[in-house]
Amino acid sequence: RFGLSEPRVSKSEITIDKRLLHHGDQAAIEHRLREQLGVQTPTTDYHDDADQIQVTFAAPGKRTTVTVNRDDGKGEVETENRGLLGKLGDLHRGSDSGRVWSGTIDATAALLIISSMTGMVTLIALRARRRNGFLVGMLGVLTIVSIYVIWVPR
Fold first, then answer.
1. Residue 133 to residues 47, 111, 121: CA-CA distances in angstroms?
2. 43 and 55 in contact (C-beta within 8 Å)?
3. Residue 130: CB partners within 8 Å, gap ≥ 6?
4. Whole-angstrom distance between the N-terminal and C-terminal Cα of the chain?
5. Rounded CA separation 89/82 (Å)
6. Which has the closest alpha carbon to 49: 79, 82, 71, 17?
7. Which stretches of the chain score pLDDT less than 50?
8. Per-residue DSSP letter, 24
């Protein structure tokens, strides 16, 4: 893949005020982390344990995970960027892409289904092309099923 989706991981450390860790709510902690790290991606995961707090900020192709120790306020930041192909892969799957993008994927799927159905109706109406059209359609279905059966792990 020419290195376009190879993850680039960087690690760093931060320090958070211990009072915020013990008395702050989730929104305040997330806000402080955003300010300190300059992160603009949405929060996708938040774990609040007795010993530590872990916050993950993610968007298509990139992820930042911050783990902060409650006792001393020191935190480890791990940032992963998977490049252009990683971003495209996440957009294709709808991973960490938000509600609007998920809706766009669903609407596109519905439009493709409607387009396919109207094509089938057209083939039924065109007697001269009906047989060849449905044969090509069946070949397409058989090809996809064969690829799934042979190469997709189960």
1. 54, 20, 11
2. yes
3. 123, 124
4. 25
5. 10
6. 71
7. none
8. -
pLDDT in tens, 42-56: 999 999 998 999 999
Both tokens of residue 55?
Answer: 């916050």
Confidence (pTM): 0.76
Which alpha helices (H) appear in 94-126, and where do they start and end?
98-125
3-state secondary structure of 131: helix
Q: Which of 72, 24, 17, 61 is nearest to 46 (CA)?
A: 24
Token representation of residue 132: 């060849």
β pairing state of 8-15 and 52-59: unpaired
Give dist(CA 145, CA 134) in Å, integer: 16
* Number of CB atoms found within 10 A of residue 64's CB: 21
**Residue 85 to residue 1: CA distance in whole angstroms:** 8
Please write the tens of the pLDDT for every residue from 89-113. Answer: 999 999 999 999 999 999 999 999 9
One-letter amino acid at 93 equals R
Strand order in the sheet with 43-48: 8-15, 74-81, 62-69, 52-59, 43-48
